[in-house]
TrEMBL record:
It comes from the Eukaryota. The chain crosses the membrane at residues 6-26, 38-57, 63-81, 102-127, 147-164, 306-323, 329-353. It holds the Pfam family DUF4791. The keyword Phosphoprotein does not apply. Keywords: Membrane, Transmembrane, Transmembrane helix. InterPro entries: DUF4791. It comes from Glossina brevipalpis. This is Uncharacterized protein.
Length: 362
């Protein structure tokens, strides 16, 4: 979220980053540091959601955007209480915080209904869960703080999607997942799996470039090609490595190399002058190849009694068919679900290639 395009959302992210930094950086002690931490806590409690709301309303209903600036009143009161040590009942402060959060979450719920945008609702829901994790969590429990931070992280991830309407976040997750897999997998010991991870990395990078470059033509064309590659190459290449690793099923490994035929047809379709019109026979061949490789990995998971393979089957199914189902239910979610599915798939690759086995059925 660039500051020149989304100043309020950028400010919210900056406040959260500074607040987290002050918690973890060593050497921040003393009276002044304590006061600074208190101010950052106030900003986190009273300013994050209003800033995100202002940014969302500027894109959807600009007329009502700056109504959310009323949060400056409880924010100012809370900061004055902490700075000057004014005695105030904790219940009053909690009531101010609750009222502020309730109004802004209600505002998000309203705009999500008016605009029929489920991302706004998810922003509200994640913020609610972040606050609820503190209110109803176990006292003095590390898990309470971890859950709180987890929900806040998801809150900012979903907020970036809701504000920018770009898949920067999920592409970033895929980039991190494939990058970790590339570092963990040796290209000499597992060349096919390494190649599959490299394809995923290129696709994530292309998606990031397209999002940042505002759908530049070259970036879009490159992403179309990598999209075909990640769909057609990933699972067959992984299957080859997994089957070669298997003692019982290794003779079947190179049979998965037949994916090059539908991949070649699909790439030729993408680079042809009529690239916008996809051939039905090519699409059918591609779907059969993907489904066949999912079934093949499922067979190997059952044959080897390997739980990681089973999880990879589920991730691959979600990446392809779960994305299609979700896109039919909620328009615009298909690509996000697909990228998240591939992120999980690539994240499991290093674990699947380890010598240790994780049994599917004990």
């Amino acid at each position: 979220m660039p500051p020149n395009q989304y100043p309020y959302a950028f400010t919210a992210c900056a406040v959260a980053l500074m607040s987290c930094s002050m918690r973890v950086l060593p050497g921040l002690q003393g009276r002044r540091s304590h006061r600074a931490k208190q101010i950052m806590t106030s900003l986190t409690d009273f300013a994050l959601l209003p800033l995100i709301n202002i940014e969302i309303y500027l894109g959807a209903k600009p007329l009502y955007a700056f109504i959310h600036a009323f949060s400056l009143i409880p924010l100012g009161i809370d900061i004055l209480i902490k700075l000057f040590g004014i005695k105030c009942d904790d219940e009053i402060k909690e009531s101010m915080k609750f009222a502020n959060n309730f109004i802004h979450m209600a505002s998000l719920a309203v705009i999500s209904v008016i605009e029929s945008n489920f991302w706004y609702f998810f922003v509200m829901l994640l913020y609610l869960m972040a606050q609820a994790s503190l209110s109803y969590g176990h006292q003095n429990s590390k898990w309470t703080e971890r859950m709180h931070l987890l929900f806040f992280t998801l809150f900012f991830l979903v907020s970036s999607k809701a504000v920018t309407d770009r898949n920067v976040v999920v592409n970033g997750i895929l980039l991190g997942s494939t990058g970790h897999a590339l570092v963990s997998v040796s290209p000499f010991q597992h060349p096919y799996a390494f190649c599959a991870c490299a394809v995923g990395f290129c696709h994530a990078f292309a998606g990031l470039v397209e999002s940042i470059a505002c759908e530049d033509r070259c970036a879009t064309c490159f992403k179309r090609l990598t999209c075909s590659c990640i769909e057609m190459m990933t699972l067959p290449m992984l299957n080859i490595d997994f089957y070669l690793k298997s003692e019982q099923s290794s003779p079947l490994a190179l049979g998965h190399g037949l994916f090059v035929v539908p991949l070649a047809f699909d790439l030729l379709t993408k680079v042809s002058p009529n690239a916008d019109v996809e051939d039905i026979s090519t699409q059918t061949l591609k779907d059969l190849t993907i489904l066949g490789n999912i079934v093949s990995l499922l067979f190997l998971a059952a044959n080897e009694n390997n739980a990681v393979y089973g999880m990879m089957v589920l991730a691959a199914f979600i990446a392809k068919y779960g994305a299609m189902i979700m896109d039919n239910i909620i328009a615009g979610t298909g690509e996000c679900i697909g990228l998240l599915g591939y992120s999980v798939l690539f994240g499991l690759v290093p674990m699947a290639l380890k010598n240790g086995t994780h049994t599917l059925v004990s």
